[in-house]
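Review form for a predicted model. The reviewer records the input and the model, then writes brief findings.
Reviewer: anonymous (R2)
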Amino acid sequence: MNIKINLHQMLGVLQKVLSLFHNQRRKMKNQILIGGQALRNLGSDRHTNDVDYLVNNTTTKDAFITSDEVDFLNANGNKFFAEIFNIESKNIQATPQSLFELKAYAFVQHCQNFNFAKADSCEYDIKFLVRNFGISASKIAKKYMTSGEYSEIVKIINSVKR
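Model under review:
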């Protein structure tokens, strides 16, 4: 009997959490698919369960809005994200160039935070985009990096065998 009560209570909590999640998602119209799932859609073989969207949630200035299932990069909380959002606002998935910009930016951020495993994943994704879509330079992310940081991105680009 206790099990049924606990399951019933857990179901109620889960329904409330899902309701809050869906309400939050409704506030974030124009969700642009980015990250690993977008790369998989383009043919990448790197597996990830992460689902990431670029949004413009005007109810918060938080640059990152996270949940267990979906993560959102918020254009309202970050000038770089806002530039990418403005370019991609009519798309449901980011273009290869914008995915490259996001990955280049993330690579630098992960290196600064000593999260080298995530930086390695970004490098892999950058190489995929360079090799398969002919991307040869950053148009946006480099404005948000030092020349030394951008030189690391250029090294990654130049390391790709085409």
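Findings: The mean pLDDT is 88.
Further findings: Residues 2-158 form one domain.
Recommendation: see findings above.
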